[in-house]
Specification:
mainly alpha
C-alpha cells in the first residue's frame, strides 16, 4: 500500500515538473515574438502551447532513453530515489522562477537525478558515458546557439541589405513559422525528459519490463507541458524580451530560427538540452552581431550565474530530500 502511494505521488510530481517546465519554457518560446510585436501575448502563447502538445508526439523518444536508461543504473534505485530527484528539480525551479531568472528545467532535473542517485547508491550508480553525454549537451548547446546566432544574423543582414522597410512584414510572417518549429522541438525535447523519469519509476515497480513508453505516459506529458506553456511565465518573458536589448522583428526571426534548429537536432540525436539556454544564447549572439555594446551584459551575467548554480543546488536539495524520505520509508 505504501509503495502504491509513493508511486502515485511520484507520477503526480513528475507531471507537476513537466507543467512547470512548460510554464518556465513559455518565456523562451514567445519572448522574442512578443518583444518584436510580431504577435500579441495571447496569440503567441496559444500557438506555442498547441505546438508543445504536438511536439512530443512527432519526434520519437531518444532523449527519454538518455535520461531514463543511459544516465543511471535503474536497478540500483528505488521509488524513493526517483521521488527525491523530482523534489530537487521542482523546488529549485520554483526558487529560481521566484527570482525571475530563465532557469533551465533541464539543469534542475539533471541536478536532481545526480543528487538523489549519489545519496542513495553512490557514484557507482551513475553511468559515466551517459553523464558525459548529458553534461556535454547542456554546455555545448548554448555555445552553438550563441555562435550560430552571430553568424546567422550577419547572413540575414547581408541578404537583406538594400531592402525596403516592407521586409519587416516578411520577418513578422516568418516568425510564426519559426516560433512554431521552436515550440515543436522544445516540446519534444523537454517532455521526453519527464517521460524518462516516469519510465524509471515504471521499470522499478515492474510496470514495464523494457523502455517502451506507454501511450498514457506520452499523452500525459504532452498535455501537461502544453498546459504549462499556455499558463505563461511573465517574469522571464520580460527578461528575455526587453532586458537584453530592444528586440526587433529581424532579431526575433534570427533567434528563433537558430534556437529551433539547435534544439531539434539535439532531440534527434538524443541530447537533452535547455531551450531557454539556447534561446538566450542565440539572442545574445544576434545582438552582438550588430554591436557588442548592444547587450546589457549584467543581465546575461545573472542568467549565467543561475545556470552554473542550478545543477549543484538542485542536486543538494534532492540529496537532502532522499535522506529525509528514506527515514520514513
Amino acid at each position: 500500500m505504501q509503495r502504491d502511494i509513493v508511486f502515485i505521488f511520484t507520477i503526480v510530481l513528475a507531471l507537476l515538473f513537466n507543467f512547470l517546465d512548460g510554464y518556465v519554457a513559455s518565456s523562451s518560446l514567445v519572448a522574442t515574438i512578443i518583444g518584436s510585436r510580431a504577435l500579441g501575448p495571447r496569440q503567441a502563447l496559444l500557438l506555442a502551447s498547441v505546438s508543445e502538445f504536438i511536439g512530443p508526439l512527432l519526434f520519437g523518444a531518444a532523449v527519454a532513453g538518455t535520461i531514463g536508461r543511459d544516465f543511471v543504473e535503474t536497478s540500483e534505485l528505488t521509488l524513493i530515489t526517483v521521488l527525491a530527484m523530482l523534489i530537487g528539480a521542482v523546488v529549485w525551479l520554483l526558487v529560481t522562477y521566484r527570482l525571475g531568472l530563465p532557469v533551465s528545467p533541464s539543469h534542475s532535473l539533471v541536478g536532481g537525478i545526480i543528487g538523489a542517485t549519489v545519496a542513495a547508491s553512490g557514484w557507482e550508480a551513475i553511468h559515466p558515458a551517459g553523464l558525459i553525454k548529458i553534461v556535454t549537451s547542456l554546455i555545448a548547446a548554448p555555445m552553438v546557439g550563441l555562435i550560430s546566432g552571430w553568424f546567422f544574423m550577419h547572413l540575414v543582414l547581408f541578404l537583406a541589405r538594400g531592402a525596403s522597410p516592407r521586409i519587416s512584414r516578411s520577418f513578422s510572417r516568418a516568425q510564426i513559422a519559426t516560433s512554431t518549429l521552436l515550440a515543436l522541438s522544445q516540446g519534444s525535447n523537454d517532455a521526453q525528459k519527464t517521460m524518462g523519469v516516469i519510465m524509471m519509476a515504471l521499470v522499478i515497480t515492474g510496470g514495464e519490463a523494457d523502455f517502451r513508453i506507454p501511450v498514457w505516459v506520452l499523452l500525459a506529458c504532452a498535455i501537461t507541458i502544453a498546459l504549462g506553456v499556455a499558463s505563461g511565465g511573465s517574469r522571464t518573458i520580460r527578461t528575455l524580451a526587453s532586458k537584453f536589448f530592444h528586440v526587433r522583428l529581424v532579431h526575433g526571426f534570427a533567434t528563433q530560427t537558430v534556437a529551433a534548429t539547435v534544439v531539434l537536432l539535439a532531440g534527434i540525436l538524443g541530447a537533452p538540452v535547455s531551450a531557454s539556454q539556447v534561446v538566450s544564447s542565440a539572442l545574445v549572439g544576434v545582438g552582438v552581431a550588430e554591436r557588442l555594446s548592444k547587450i546589457r551584459w549584467e543581465v546575461f551575467t545573472n542568467i549565467l550565474l543561475a545556470w552554473v548554480l542550478t545543477i549543484p543546488a538542485a542536486g543538494f536539495v534532492a540529496a537532502a530530500a532522499y535522506v529525509l524520505l528514506s527515514r520514513f520509508a
